[in-house]
């Protein structure tokens, strides 16, 4: 099984031969002339966050946007368009004019379940977007309520084995990345969870804090505030190495479970057919912001690991993840 983690160095090297035009960018003298002054001074660029204000994507956008604004000399305005498990905001980006003045979060792998699941009625696919890069990664953890009887991941998984299909686990959406990762755990470890779907990551975390479900899986940043306050206990990080944000939380590997690491990439994209040198300008600005030490400190403060991935490599990662995950989503959609 291929790993659900960031691209390997070998994959990066292989992806280097891809041009931005493979992502839908335009080339040619006319395009160059038309976009040489992008963005125009005083222009407003909308960063569409397809989730609510205060959610993880929104917090990170408001960290990165000021740095991009200062670099581009244009107003980078964060706009929240929530609804439909992010489909509303993603539709907006896909259907926006391809002029570089609209981009948005297309996180990998979470975006895959939005368009691979027909019930979500997404008006987009991978071909609807051109990535401009990915600026950070998020390790996947498993958390329980502070009063949970499960003090270790072994105790939790032993309970699942003892009573298959009864231990409840919350996800942020049906056929989303949580759901996919849980299915991968079930297959790898011979487990059977009782999966409960919520409308958002915030709802999922609230279900853990209230004790409505037995446990939940998701990015460390989404649990971090409640972990620090003591409302949630983290039982494991699904990585080969400990997370710098929760260094005392054991990895699944160290607990004796042979499971491939899981992580998410915070990627941004413009609509397909955005001119290549507009994409390049946004990519350069995002890279500069992502590598700014002050920005990186803020990202780490939000329990998110800075990790720059180029536009081309993000496109390759997206294709690889889609090829890996589509069969799993198809299987999930056949379940009642």
From TrEMBL:
Pfam families in the record: TctC
Keyword Signal applies: yes
Signal sequence coordinates: 1-29
Keyword Signal: yes
InterPro entries per the UniProt record, alphabetical: BUG, Bug_dom1
Alphabetical list of SUPFAM superfamilies matching this protein: Periplasmic binding protein-like II
Keywords, ordered alphabetically: Receptor, Signal
Family: Belongs to the UPF0065 (bug) family.
Name the UniProt record assigns to this protein: Tripartite tricarboxylate transporter family receptor
Protein source organism: Arthrobacter ulcerisalmonis
């Amino acid at each position: 099984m291929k790993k659900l983690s960031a691209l390997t160095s070998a994959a990066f090297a292989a992806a280097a031969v891809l041009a931005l035009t493979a992502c839908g960018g335009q080339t040619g003298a006319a395009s160059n002339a038309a976009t040489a002054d992008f963005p125009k001074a005083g222009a407003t660029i909308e960063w569409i966050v397809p989730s609510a204000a205060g959610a993880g994507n929104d917090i990170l956008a408001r960290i990165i946007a000021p740095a991009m604004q200062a670099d581009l000399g244009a107003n980078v305005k964060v706009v929240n368009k929530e609804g439909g498990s992010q489909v509303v905001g993603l539709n907006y980006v896909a259907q926006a004019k391809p002029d570089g003045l609209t981009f948005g979060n297309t996180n990998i792998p979470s975006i895959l379940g939005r368009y691979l699941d027909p019930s979500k009625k997404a008006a987009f696919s991978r071909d609807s977007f051109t990535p401009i890069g990915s600026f950070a990664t998020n390790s996947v953890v498993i958390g329980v309520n502070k009063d949970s009887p499960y003090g270790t991941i072994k105790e939790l998984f032993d309970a699942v084995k003892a009573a298959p299909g009864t231990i409840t686990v919350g996800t942020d959406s049906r056929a989303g990345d949580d759901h996919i990762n849980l299915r991968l755990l079930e297959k790898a470890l011979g487990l059977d969870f009782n999966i409960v779907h919520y409308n958002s990551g915030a709802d999922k975390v609230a279900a853990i804090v209230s004790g409505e479900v037995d446990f939940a899986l998701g990015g460390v940043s989404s649990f971090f505030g409640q972990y620090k306050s003591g409302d949630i206990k983290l039982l494991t990080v699904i990585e080969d190495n400990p997370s710098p944000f929760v260094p005392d939380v054991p990895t699944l590997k160290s607990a004796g479970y042979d499971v491939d690491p899981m992580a998410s990439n915070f990627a941004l994209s413009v609509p397909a057919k955005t001119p290549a040198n507009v994409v390049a300008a946004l990519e350069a600005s995002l890279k500069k912001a992502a590598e700014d030490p002050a920005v990186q400190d803020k990202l780490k403060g939000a329990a998110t690991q800075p990790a720059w991935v180029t536009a081309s490599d993000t496109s390759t990662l997206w294709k690889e993840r889609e090829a890996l995950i589509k069969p799993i989503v198809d299987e999930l959609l056949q379940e009642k």
